[in-house]
């Protein structure tokens, strides 16, 4: 027997990533992270089948997230990355930095620098 649990759907051999359990008393289908061991009344599903899961009419689907799973980047992460790239591409005023005593004096928000990365102080503090 294979050590990797497979999807319970017919003709699907992909590895399971989620476990589906039905709560008949509440008319609810609960889809959560892969259970630690296979249960007889639960269904293991692959990523594709877990994303496309639908419940019968009148039933509710509850999707539980796995806190140990890596999170997907949000729009805020992408915006922060774009702002950092724009800041790095902005030309630096080398003359002013040399006259006033170095790069830290030219940019009062910069606290530390390591290679091309900078630690900035919050404008509130």
What structural keywords apply?
single chain; 125 residues; alpha+beta; two-stranded antiparallel ribbon; 6 strands; 24% helix; 23% strand; elongated
The arrangement of helices and strands along the chain is EEEHEHHHEE
Percent helix among the residues?
A: 10-25%
- Give the total of beta strands: 6
Q: What general form does the structure show?
A: elongated
Strand content: 15-25%
The biggest sheet amounts to:
4 strands, mixed
Distinct helical segment count = 4
What class do helices, strands and sheet pairing give? alpha+beta
Average pLDDT level: 79
CA gyration radius, whole angstroms? 26 Å
Strand order of the largest sheet: 3-1-2-4
For the termini, the CA-CA separation is 60 Å
pLDDT under 50 segments (min length 5)? 97-107
Q: Could you describe the 3D structure shown?
A:
This protein is α+β, with helices and mostly antiparallel strands. It is 24% helix and 23% strand. The protein contains four helices and six strands; from the N terminus they run βββαβαααββ. Strands 3-1-2-4 form a four-stranded mixed sheet. The protein has a two-stranded antiparallel ribbon with strand order 5-6. A hairpin with a 4-residue loop joins β1 and β2. The protein is elongated, with a radius of gyration of 26 Å.
